[in-house]
Amino acid sequence: MHSHNHADAHGHAHVSSTRAFAAITLINLAYTVLEAGYGFLTDSLALLSDAVHNLGDVMGLGLAWAAAVLARRQPTDRHTYGWRRATLLSPLANALLVVAFSGALAWEAVSRLNAPPTIPALPVIVVAAIGIFVNLAAAWFVRDGHAHDLNRRGAYMHLVADAAVSLAAVLAGIGMYVFGWSWLDPVTALLIGVVIAAGAFGLLRDSFNAAMDAVPTSIDQAKVLEFLGAQPGVAAVHHLHIWSLGAGEIAMTAHLVRPENNDHDAFIDRLAHDLDHRFGINHPTLQIEHGKACEHDRHDRAPHAH
C-alpha cells in the first residue's frame, strides 16, 4: 500500500556497518592475542581477565559483523523480510557471552584472593594502556547511529566498557608498582567481572525485548494510537502492533475504521509518510475498514498491542 524510497539509504548504512564491524573486530582480535600473551607471561589475572573479556567482545563483535552482513541479504519466498532480525538476535547472544565470561573471571579472582601471586606491574600498565587507546579508537568507528541501532549499541557499549576496564587495570598496575599491593590484581579482576555483568544487563533486557517483538523503546505506542485516531475520518483504531524488524527498521500494522466514500489510497500514502517522519515507523501496513466492520473486535482495540 505504500512505497519504500529509503531502500538505497539502508543499503549504504549496511555497507558502512559491515566495514566498521570488520575493522573493529580485527583490531580487537589482534589486541586480545597481545594481552593474553602478556597475561600468561606475567601471570596477571587482571590482564588475563581483561583478555578473556576482550575475547568475548571479539566473538560478540564477530556476531554483530555477521548480523550486519546477513541483514543485507535479499528477501526470499521463505524469508520474506530477509535476514534483518539477525541484527536483533546478535546483541542477545553478545550479552549472554559477556555475562558468562564475567562469571568465570569472578570465580577465578575469588580463588586467588587468599594468596595473590606477585605480578610484574610495568607490563600490566603498558599493555592495559594500549587497551584504552584500542578500545576508544574502535568505539569511534561505531559511534554514529548507536543510539537507534541495537546492534551498533551493543558493540559501542562493549568498547567503551572495555576502555574503562583497561583503565582499571592500569590503575591496579600503578598500585602494584608503587605500593607492592599484589592483592590489587585479583580484586581488579573481580571488579571487572561485576562491572561487565552490570553493563550487559541493560543490553540483555533490550535485545530480549526486541527479539520478543516488543514496541521499540524509542516509540510511545499511546502517542501513535492517538495520532492515528486523530486522522481525518478515522472513527476507530484497532489491531495496532509495532515492532522492530532489525537495525533502524520499524514495522507497524493497524486497522483503521473510515467512511466508505473517502479516497483511501491518498490517505494511506500520506499517513505512511507521516508515520516515518514523526515516529520513524518505516514499514507500516494499514487496513481500512468501513462503518461497523470491526464491532466484533471491539474488545481487542486498546490492550491488543505488543
Helices and strands, with pairings:
Layout: H1 7-42, H2 45-70, H3 86-112, H4 121-141, H5 150-179, H6 184-211, H7 221-229, E1 236-246, E2 249-258, H8 264-279, E3 283-290
Parallel strand pairs: 2-3
Antiparallel strand pairs: 1-2
Helix pairs in contact: 1-2, 1-4, 2-3, 2-5, 2-6, 3-5, 3-6, 4-5, 5-6
Describe the model.
By secondary structure, the protein is mainly alpha-helical. It folds into 2 domains: 7-211, Up-down Bundle (Alpha-lytic protease prodomain-like); 221-300, Cation efflux protein, cytoplasmic domain (Alpha-Beta Plaits), CATH 3.30.70. The protein is built from 8 helices and 3 strands. The chain has a 3-stranded mixed beta sheet. The longest helix has 36 residues, at 7-42. Mean pLDDT is 79; it is low at 1-13 and 293-306.
What tags apply to this protein structure?
single chain; about 300 residues; mainly alpha; Alpha-lytic protease prodomain-like; Alpha-Beta Plaits; three-stranded mixed sheet; about 10% strand; elongated
